[in-house]
Automatic annotation (TrEMBL):
Membrane topology according to the record: Multi-pass membrane protein
GO cellular-component term (any): plasma membrane
Domain of life: Bacteria
All copies of domain YetF-like N-terminal transmembrane, residue ranges: 12-77
InterPro entries the UniProt entry points to: DUF421 (IPR007353), UPF0702_alpha/beta_dom_sf (IPR023090), YetF_N (IPR048454)
Limits of the YetF C-terminal domain: 83-151
Entry keywords, A to Z: Cell membrane, Membrane, Transmembrane, Transmembrane helix
Family: Belongs to the UPF0702 family.
Protein name: DUF421 domain-containing protein
Organism: Chromohalobacter japonicus
Keyword field contains Transmembrane helix: yes
Subcellular location field: Cell membrane
Lineage: Bacteria, Pseudomonadati, Pseudomonadota, Gammaproteobacteria, Oceanospirillales
Membrane-spanning segments: 6-24, 36-53, 59-81
Length: 168
């Protein structure tokens, strides 16, 4: 088969199969990215690229590679839901960056976040006064969660690194 024809045929089939495989793998594959999701996405893209331009890699090999990557992603996410050890290997822990109106500078340095980024997240939530913010959390996907006021408990902050263990 001519290399251009190979690229067209393999490209169309690989693209369609990749869409089907990702849809079958569930919403988790398409969720906001953490480091693990980024690696899976890069691996899928690299595999698709190789399938498109390499006449030395068969369509069956490419489709098998897609299936292996998605199956591994499924197995790891399945295991991470059931095993804290696997979860800790795959996913980072959310980190408290601001608490009760005060910045947690050591956590910010560790996460490489500056005050300007935290303030931008606060503004995005329509809050003008940092002291009125109860907490800002850097989530595992790199987004900021802003909690404008304290509730009766801090249950939404369970599992957040840097959260004080006792209050009162």
């Amino acid at each position: 088969m001519h290399p251009v024809a190979h690229t067209v045929v393999v490209g169309i089939i690989s693209y369609l199969v990749l869409i089907v495989v990702i849809r079958l793998s569930g919403k988790r594959t398409l969720s906001k990215w953490n480091a693990f999701d980024f690696v899976v996405t890069i691996a899928l893209g690299s595999t698709l690229s190789t399938a498109l331009v390499s006449t030395q890699v068969s369509l069956a090999q490419s489709l098998t590679a897609f299936a292996i990557i998605v199956l591994l992603q499924f197995a790891i996410t399945f295991s991470s839901v059931r095993s804290p050890r696997v979860k800790n290997l795959v996913k980072s822990q959310p980190t408290l960056l601001l608490y009760a109106g005060e910045y947690r500078h050591s956590a910010m340095r560790q996460e490489r976040v500056v005050e300007a980024e935290v303030m931008a997240a606060i503004r995005e939530n329509g809050i003008a006064d940092v002291e009125r913010v109860y907490a800002v959390v850097l989530e595992t996907d790199g987004t900021f969660s802003v909690i404008p006021e304290a509730g009766r408990s801090d249950s939404a902050l369970d599992g957040v690194a840097g959260m004080p263990s006792s209050q009162g």
